[in-house]
């Protein structure tokens, strides 16, 4: 009896060990299928110098109406009868640790929210470098790019408020300088509550957010900033719907009918058929306040002898933040006009072979002074955490007189896609990488 008991015990131990191995193997198999940023999350050491924003309960506002809810979902995602893209419900405008390298940056995984988050990043850089106190403007730019926690919160609040206010028409300039416009901008902020106001049905698929929105209206930028700062945690929290709330607020502030006109196709949607990192129209929307799919200046009338000329509305005024595109050597149809290529400030959202990033220079006078553009440093940053610094020298072609065409062609063939993107703005520039890029 004792021997049989021992053998039974051994069998039980062996069975448990086999079960444990099977479970470990299944866990490893499941882990391999995850994207890299989730696969290694157990080994990530998160820095301790982060603070939690106060979480004030959302009070007041107007519950979203059924028609507005369904139209909003359809305009953004293409349909309200099917589930929307899941990443928009779990991507926030999350800040990096304050006081450290890249503290000016946002972080986000690579998905269709990347275009929106990158455009927000560009607006934030404008505030970090050029929209600060006179005393701070005299400081070393590197200091401005390592902000304190309070400065981070202030800039994120200002960037979100500015984008919503621009989409509401708050920064539009009247065409006649002597005419005072009587139209008061109406910015709308959409925040979630617990109660769904539309039930799940064949016509509407509940996503857990859109049908719970409360809408808040503002007629001044100052009031809007105070409100956004109070509920900033809803936009900022990692894993929260911050990107989706900002996009919804911008669309509602612009107006659903105006968004439909901007898209030019009654069946089109903002995220319909977009690439892996999001569509161009979102970047144009954030930078100009209009969700146009076109990058050219002004209005082009497109048609032929058999059809009426149809107007295509591009960028109507010079932008403070620019946009540069490089897809491949043969595709020049997506090249931005001068109002995006030469913005008021030396900051550009970039699209390089499907990847979004930001190019920026810390000298406000770069685009206003010809001599400053002869040789200067430029930085490149992505919300995935990549960072590089380059020196751009536009004197090379000037010194050679443009005679050594073969050398310039050989250099262009050997250039990286990012260098080719930079040369779409500064043609034939000599580009030198400073140090090792952070990847």
Strand order in space, largest sheet: 8-9-10-11-12-13
Q: Which class do the helix and strand fractions yield?
A: alpha+beta
Determine the N-to-C terminus distance.
Answer: 65 Å
Task: Report the sheet with the most strands, covering strand number, pairing sense and barrel closure.
Answer: 6 strands, mixed
Task: Tell me the count of domains.
Answer: 1
What is the strand content? 15-25%
Q: Could you estimate the helical fraction of the residues in percent?
A: 25-40%
Shape: globular
Rg value: 25 Å
> What is the H/E order?
HHEHEEHHHHEEHHHHHEEEHEEEEHHHE
On the 0 to 100 scale, the average pLDDT is 84
Tally of DSSP β-strands: 13
**Oligomeric assembly:** single chain
- Total of helices: 16
Low-confidence stretches: 33-48, 173-179
Describe this structure in words.
The protein is of the alpha+beta class and 439 residues long. The chain is 37% helix and 15% strand. The protein is globular. The N and C termini lie far apart (65 Å). Keywords: Hydrolase, Protease, Thiol protease, Ubl conjugation pathway.
């Amino acid at each position: 009896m004792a021997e049989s008991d021992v053998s039974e015990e051994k069998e039980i131990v062996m069975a448990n060990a086999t079960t444990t191995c099977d479970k470990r193997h299944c866990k490893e198999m499941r882990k391999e299928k995850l994207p890299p940023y989730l696969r290694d999350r157990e080994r990530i050491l998160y820095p301790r110098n982060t603070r939690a924003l106060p979480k004030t309960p959302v009070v007041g506002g107007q519950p979203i109406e059924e028609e507005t809810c369904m139209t909003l979902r359809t305009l953004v995602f293409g349909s309200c009868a099917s589930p929307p893209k899941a990443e928009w419900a779990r991507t926030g405008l999350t800040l990096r640790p304050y006081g450290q390298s890249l503290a000016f940056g946002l972080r986000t995984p690579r998905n269709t929210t990347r275009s929106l988050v990158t455009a927000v990043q560009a607006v934030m850089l404008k505030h970090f470098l050029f929209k600060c106190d006179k005393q701070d403007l005299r400081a070393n730019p590197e200091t401005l790019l390592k902000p304190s926690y309070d400065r981070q919160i202030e800039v994120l609040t200002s960037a979100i408020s500015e984008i919503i206010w621009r989409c509401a028409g708050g920064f539009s300039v009247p065409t006649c300088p002597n005419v005072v416009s009587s139209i008061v901008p109406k910015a709308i902020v959409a925040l979630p509550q617990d109660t769904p106001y539309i039930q799940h049905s064949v016509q509407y698929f509940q996503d857990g957010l859109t049908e719970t929105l409360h809408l808040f209206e503002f007629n001044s930028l100052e009031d809007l900033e105070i409100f956004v700062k109070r509920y900033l945690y809803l936009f900022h929290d990692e894993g929260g719907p911050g990107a989706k709330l900002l996009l919804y607020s911008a669309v509602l502030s612009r107006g659903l009918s105006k968004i439909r006109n901007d898209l030019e196709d009654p069946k089109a949607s903002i995220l319909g058929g977009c690439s892996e990192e999001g569509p161009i129209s979102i970047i144009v929307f954030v930078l100009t306040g209009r969700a146009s799919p076109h990058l050219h200046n002004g209005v082009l009338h497109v048609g032929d002898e058999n059809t009426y000329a149809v107007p295509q509305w591009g960028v109507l005024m010079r932008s403070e933040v620019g946009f540069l595109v490089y897809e491949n050597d043969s595709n020049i149809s997506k090249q931005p006009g001068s109002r995006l290529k030469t913005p008021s400030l030396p900051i550009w959202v970039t699209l390089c072979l499907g990847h979004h990033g930001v190019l920026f220079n810390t000298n406000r006078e770069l685009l206003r002074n010809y001599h400053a553009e002869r040789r200067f440093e430029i930085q490149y940053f992505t919300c995935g955490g990549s960072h590089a610094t380059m020196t751009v020298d536009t004197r090379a072609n000037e010194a050679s007189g443009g005679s050594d065409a073969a050398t310039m062609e050989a250099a262009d063939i050997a250039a990286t896609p990012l260098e080719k993107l930079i040369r779409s703005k500064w043609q034939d520039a000599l580009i030198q990488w400073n140090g090792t890029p952070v990847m």
